[in-house]
Predict the structure.
Amino acid sequence: MRFTAFLFLLLLLSFPSYALDLKGSFSQGGFVYGKTMPEADVQLNDTIIPVDENGYFILGFGRDHPDTATLTISAPNGSQSVRHFNVRQRD
């Protein structure tokens, strides 16, 4: 039983940490900033997003951005996290 619990904990710790706590406005004309691991690759839809040496990045949404966005974060070890977001239309 302890061995199984240990394996489960080890499995949880092996997953990379991705930016899940994004801050900002997912709306047309808005921007969002987040943090991920340094050296990760971030992509919003088909656009590569620059990441600084500390893992911070900024996402910007055009005034005519579609109503959905896909954020892909690729870790240096090759694993990926994909998140889909709704983008609010501007008034």
Summary: The radius of gyration is 16 Å.
